[in-house]
Amino acid sequence: MNVTLGRVRDLVLHGLGFTPDPRHNVIDTINRAGRSLVAEHSWWWRSMRPVRVTLQNGEILLPDDFLELVSLTNTVGSMYTPQPATIQEVMRLRQSRTVVSDPTFLYALSVSGSGPGGAPRPMLLAAPVNAAPAELDLMYVAAWADIPPTADNGYLLAIVPEAESALVYGARVEAGLIENQTVTPELEKYRAEVSRLKAQDASRQVNHGPMSGGAGRFINASGMVGAPYFNRVIFR
Asked: I need a surface site. Which of 38, 80, 173, 211 has the fewest CB within 10 A?
């Protein structure tokens, strides 16, 4: 069963129990709830297939719907190996102007102001620049796809049916706050549903083996175990 805008909107309004203020844009409310839900967890249904990205001048612009980095790997035939690091390590290596022949280069998640209207946009910085290949394969978790303001009731939301209840409860919380209503019962339902979905995701992970490329530990440039690197940028 597909999740449509009309169905979710009807369920949100039913939860309110009254006609909302005419200034209340329900689509915006559902979008806010969707962004919050997607940011709760690295949901399996938001993971994308590898896409080819290009490194230019030590920078890689990421897809418009980027939310979280899963992995960055070299392309077939490349002699270099990308390795995650902190932004401090990348900048330190860049500033040292070191030229290395080692087949490993460091990369870290950063933010540029090159988005629409100068808005922040996630990107990757690499160092040393001379060691980086021109093309890489990127695996990432996609962000919430905003519902356009002109969407009709048949518009399909980018969400799996099993997550519909969490989205509805989250949107009811958002709507209740706008309408100055008590949101505690819906908030409790939302939290319970998110916990259920996370447990379901964990069960899938056990069945399919451990996820590679996690952010818990990495070997830094000096060969020691370093602090976790950042793999997610969230704009609210």
From this structure: 211
Query: What angle (nearest 5°) sits at the alpha carbon of residue 18, between those of residues 170 and 153?
Result: 60
Reference 58, options 31, 29, 98, 30; nearest CA is: 98
Contacts of 67 by beta carbon, 8 Å cutoff, 6+ apart? 38, 39, 46, 140, 141, 142, 143, 232, 233, 234
Give tens-digit pLDDT for 64-111: 889 889 899 888 766 667 889 999 998 888 888 666 556 678 899 988
Q: How far is 171 from 223, CA to CA, in rounded Å?
A: 46
Residues 213, 214, 218: CA angle, nearest 5 degrees: 85
Whole-prediction pTM: 0.74
Give the list of residues 6+ apart from residue 143 with CB closer than 8 angstroms, or none: 35, 38, 46, 65, 66, 67
Whole-angstrom distance, CA of residue 1 vs CA of residue 197: 18
Q: Using DSSP bridges, classify how beta strands 104-112 and 51-54 pair: parallel, antiparallel or unpaired.
A: unpaired
Find the radius of gyration of the CA atoms of the chain.
21
Single-letter code of the amino acid located at 142: A
